[in-house]
Amino acid sequence: MRRRDLLAAAGGLTLSAQPLGAQPAAPVLGPAQREAVARAEAALSAIRTLKARFLQADSRGGTAQGTVWMQRPNRARFAYDPPATILVVADGTFVTFFDSAVNQTSSLPIGSTPLGTLLAERVRLDEGEGRVTAVQLGEGMIRITVVKRSNPAEGSLTLTFSDPPLELRQWTVIDAQAREVRVTLYGVETGIRIDPALFRFVPPEFGTPAPG
């Protein structure tokens, strides 16, 4: 799996402020779809802490696994299993990407990544810069696609929930070049205590705390 794909799914899809001319009209959501969006927002907002294993796959057949910790608001840690060499840490303000293979570190404001949507204090999928473009209601499943209102052609974030109970199971990032990266959660634990040190980025060779 390529480094770009690892970063995209973990939150590295940059949301540029450059509009692309006239935008299509917003889709009309029916009552059932609007209710599903409201339920999804409430379910996400209710998750204060989360730990899970994840399986990441891209449209070229690459895969990676790891462990993710999340804490609202705006904190996360994605620790990829070897042979992947990526560590992603959101500290509440920035998302830092570290690639130990090349000893390279870069950062983005969390609000410019999909993690800003997932980990906001109060999740709002269809307000502000977010716009819901599709809601699929299936047997035991709800799927919601969100784009950036000012630049929908840039990419999309699709959240997939099991229902009932309504629980986040997967998210998919598609970029402007139609490259897709999908992250599936399993072994999910919520409402747990997480060591705050996990959300502070320290290069591993300088003593990053061991995840637990």
Automatic annotation (TrEMBL):
<dbReference type="Pfam" id="PF03548">
    <property type="entry name" value="LolA"/>
</dbReference>
<protein>
    <submittedName>
        <fullName>Outer membrane lipoprotein carrier protein LolA</fullName>
    </submittedName>
</protein>
<dbReference type="InterPro" id="IPR004564">
    <property type="entry name" value="OM_lipoprot_carrier_LolA-like"/>
</dbReference>
<keyword id="KW-0449">Lipoprotein</keyword>
